[in-house]
Specification:
about 350 residues, mainly alpha
Length: about 350
């Protein structure tokens, strides 16, 4: 992630290999295909539904007809909105190119904390009626929780300098080296501009189910979901605070030419980071599994189509060659003692699974 505190050059050989272009594209198309199949079969986002929307909103030029269709097919509306957003992201990335002439994907990072809670509020809005002016209590709770998550992540991104013009995640610089020229152009379209917005919308899918079953009263599943979500959000906040404080103090000492002391190794290994090498991502992934429980509270089966979102998010982080491996490969090129930390502390869960 971009940071105002400072940066460390990657001068060591490091460990691991960057993900290949064809492997990345294959994984992206497979996951996009899974979204299309699941949403067509279970969420009603079919071609015929899209055509009905085009007729209601475009061909008939009927405001009331468009509104009636939108409220009868909120998930389809959300899918179409994300496709439009994907095109806007792509257009922004190719207009605002990096210093190497390749697309600038940083706009996706700026939208990551916003998209899920905007979709959650859209689904809640569809539950508002004259008889129920505040909408469904369940979708309201879900929208508020998603907003809290989004505001925290936005604040964390802002204080690291993520919204400064020209800033970008340091990992994009490396990815452009691994996928030069046209490869990165294709990667930008498929993985960054299309897959990520649809994934973020998939995380809010339980709110769509809750809106469709808005008459189901709150129950124990909702309480469990809200408590788990809140606890994991607190854990993620603590992990990010610990990392930010560590990096800030490390670079302050470097700038003032003070003895580094416990910061000499260069990477954090205390607090939650003594139990997991990625406690923030651990909490982040499981936040959305907790959110999924709201769909069960709304009356869906314990395993239902909205589980796709958190599963795909987990794959984005923990599958071989994915985000965690890329991050660790870059860390091993910066910090000589990082392999010892890898051998001592579990990668994700705070127990050794293998």
């Amino acid at each position: 992630m971009t940071s105002l505190t400072g940066s460390t050059a990657a001068k060591l050989k490091g460990s691991g290999q960057p993900p290949g272009f064809w492997v990345t594209m294959g994984g992206s198309f497979a996951q996009l295909g899974a979204m299309a199949l699941v949403w067509d079969r279970y969420a009603g986002a079919s071609v015929s539904e899209y055509k009905r929307g085009v007729t209601a909103c475009g061909l008939d030029f009927s405001v009331s007809g468009c509104r009636d269709w939108s409220f009868s097919a909120p998930w389809t509306v959300a899918v179409l909105a994300q496709i439009v957003l994907a095109f806007a992201i792509w257009l922004s990335s190719v207009v605002k190119r990096g210093h190497d002439g390749l697309p600038d994907p940083s706009v996706v990072d700026k939208l990551w904390s916003v998209t899920p809670f905007v979709n959650a509020w859209w689904f809640h809005w569809t539950t508002i009626t004259p008889q129920r002016p505040y909408g469904s209590p369940r979708t309201l709770c879900m929208a508020l929780l998603a907003t809290t998550w989004g505001m925290r992540l936005t604040w964390n991104f802002w204080r690291k300098g993520g919204y400064i013009p020209g800033s970008e995640d340091y990992r994009w610089v490396e990815v452009r080296k691994w996928m030069p020229g046209m490869q990165f152009e294709v990667f930008n379209v498929v993985f960054i501009c299309l897959f990520q917005p649809l994934l973020l919308m998939a995380l809010a899918a339980p709110a769509a189910v809750a809106a469709a079953h808005s008459d189901v009263p709150l129950n124990q599943s909702d309480v469990a979901a809200a408590v788990l979500f809140s606890m994991l959000l607190c854990g993620e906040t603590v992990a990010d605070l610990q990392m930010f404080d560590y990096q800030t103090e490390k670079y302050r000492r470097k700038g003032n030419k003070e003895p580094l002391g416990p910061y000499a190794r260069g990477f954090i290994e205390t607090g939650l980071w003594a139990w997991s090498r990625h406690p923030n991502y651990l909490c982040e992934v499981h936040i959305w599994f907790a959110y999924y429980l709201f769909s069960v509270g709304a009356g869906e089966d314990p395993v239902n189509w909205t589980l796709l979102g958190p599963v795909l998010l987990a794959l984005l982080f923990v599958s071989p060659g994915a985000s965690l491996d890329v991050t660790e490969m870059l860390s091993s090129k910066k910090y000589r003692d990082f392999p010892e930390y890898q051998a001592r502390v579990p990668k994700f869960y705070p127990i050794k699974l293998w």
